[in-house]
Amino acid sequence: MSSTTVVGAKAVRPRAATATAADSARLRWSRRLQHGGWFVAPFFVLYGLFVVVPVVRGLYLSFTDANISGDHTSFIGLSNYREALKDRLVWDSLWHSVRFTLEVVPCIVVVALLMALIAHHTVHFKWLWRLCFFAPFLLPSAVVGNLWWWLFQPTNGMVNHVLGLDTPWLTQKSTAMLAVVVATLWWTVGFSFLLYLAALQNIPQHLYEAAELDGANAFQRMLHITVPNLRHITGLVLALQILASLQVFDQAVVMYQFGPGPEESTRTFVQYTLEQGFTSYRVGYASAISFILFLIIAVVALGRMWLLRNREEGAAR
């Protein structure tokens, strides 16, 4: 007798056969997890110890009046967050970080794209162009900060010497943040340049050949072929640079010799958080401020994901 029972016009398999198939699929997945789990286990252990546990601990401290010594800690609820929302320096430092982001991110995108186009289309010494463009990104932040501190000196600095100026870049409020922007652009543009260069190499060459046969000039080919094919990598570069720029700290602190700059014009959000934690010894308040920045970054990241998903859904239609 057949193991399949016919009911009406449909063939129904017995429950035993269905259960056997489910058990075999479950067994295959358990074997995969069993073998692969040993490979990812070290990562999850380290991630839990050095990321999850500190984050949970910091969240708890943000609801306390903890100091740097850890003595006499008491739960105070949302008092730290209410104080942060009324703190003028919190809003000033947040504006400095946002202003820095608005100034440096568009420059990085444009300069990185131009550098990638130069390195991609040049004929001779391609390796030299790529090395020169990417090399600054390998330098430590302390080296970059001290280097540009010397370059921006008003009397013997190279910037004023080349431009023929005597501007006190680091001691004047109107140019203090601009100096940090220039240093950051020189330092970090190499990473975005590398992403754009890889994306340019993946654009099919026959698109340019067909457009050239149709009479399109170089500008038209870049506008209608290069730029549309780089929209996804541009979105990635924007997201990465925005998230990194909101956390600016190293170069701004080193360039101003561990101070907030003239009239506190370069004090960033991260710098103010560290001042509260390690100068004022208010660990609980610093933890609350840091989680405010975490929420801002999370909103930016989720907004970028939402826009990307809607764009993909619109393209699929």
Summarize the structure.
With 317 residues, the protein is mostly helical. It has helices spanning 15-61, 79-86, 88-121, 126-134, 141-151, 158-163, 173-201, 205-213, 218-229, 231-245, 250-255, 269-278, 283-316, and strands at residues 5-7, 10-12.
Walk me through this protein's architecture.
By secondary structure, this protein is an all-alpha fold. It contains 13 helices and 2 strands, in the order E-E-H-H-H-H-H-H-H-H-H-H-H-H-H. It has helices at 15-61, 79-86, 88-121, 126-134, 141-151, 158-163, 173-201, 205-213, 218-229, 231-245, 250-255, 269-278, 283-316, and strands at residues 5-7, 10-12. A two-stranded antiparallel ribbon has the order 1-2. Strand 1 and strand 2 form a beta hairpin. The protein is flat and about 75 Å long.
- Series of H and E elements: EEHHHHHHHHHHHHH
Secondary-structure class = mainly alpha
Which range does the strand content fall in? under 5%
End-to-end Cα distance: 50 Å
Unreliable residue stretches = 1-12
Shape: flat
Question: Percent range for helical residues?
Answer: over 70%
